[in-house]
Amino acid sequence: MMHLKCSTGYRVAQRPETMTRNTGTIAGQNLINAIKFPERLPGTSLRDWDSILRLAKRANLIGRLAEGAHYRGVMDELPTQVRTHLESARVLTSHQRQAIAWETRHIGQALKSIGAPLILLKGAAYAIADLAAAHGRLFGDVDLLVPRACLNQAEAALMMHGWASGHADPYDERYYRRWMHELPPMAHRKRGTVIDVHHNILPLTARTLPSADLLLNASVPVPGTDFRVLSPSDMVIHSATHLFHEGELQNGLRDLFDLDALLNEFSERESDFWHELTDRAHTLGLAWPLHLALRYSRAILGTEVPPHVSASVSKAATPGRVSQRLLDGMYLRGLQPDHPLCSNYSTDVARAALYLRGHYLRMPVGLLVIHLGRKSIMRLFKNTSRSV
Q1: What burial class does residue 141 get, using C-beta atoms within 10 Å of its C-beta: 0-12 exposed, 13-18 middle, 19+ buried?
Q2: For the whole model, what pTM was predicted?
């Protein structure tokens, strides 16, 4: 049985007074509390369990909830109906961890010939480095960062070993290869697993584009594997950047829990972590997504952040009082699970605004208008063809 680090013992800090309102619905807060305080789960009513499980599944947090109950030793005290869901989630997350290990071995073998550093990102990196953020986490694609000069070699090597791009649309191909920070997703013809090969962590058209060389040079090897992962500071900054450049937040709360776990683990493990984190964010030009990550991790999950750290990133990142209040209104709603139990007109408006904001940060206005216009037309034609 996999030995668990304390992946769900989330520490709670006092929330900023200005952020205590509208941090989510009662149902959403019940889910957060269930994950943060698994020792309290035995006293939960079946009515609350019904909403917690629905939201946990929608937010891809059912595995983290299950691992917390198991780690705290309260699984046997839960109702049978609930235990069935949680045990099933534990089986699924365990299977996915094994699948990630299996898939990364194949990827390593396929790319060994290109002689370039292979840096795993996000969920695959958490898993292969055995970080607390991986425990109970549900995984999707394998994300990999390679030097841009090696991108064509990496794509050719993967194709030789059974991976192929599923994007036949010429516009999509051009969109990825000309403007994005990654190749079109590649799926294995037999296993169906998907790999996203990146050459940076943000699109080439983004308003702030960090140096990929800085990320590559600071990456650290994972013993016993062909892979590397980002340094602790870079891993947090990448997680923050990914979440707060994203326009669709179906996994927003899960990603926020990832950030919470990373911050807790690295700050406990490395005495100088907070200083390195703030310095690195300024160096990469990514202080503002880190500011948002720290702000909402603290407001929604109660993550402990030293005041001087928040002040340091805020100086370079705070967009102004009015803009910050608008962002608070959007993110405190948009980061809730995308489920009718947590949704109303205001959350729909917030998610629509975040969708536009995410695209605005990723591309210039002219390209944004063309891109969104084309997507709208294609969606209209698709809906029309279905109705016919």
Answers
A1: middle
A2: 0.87
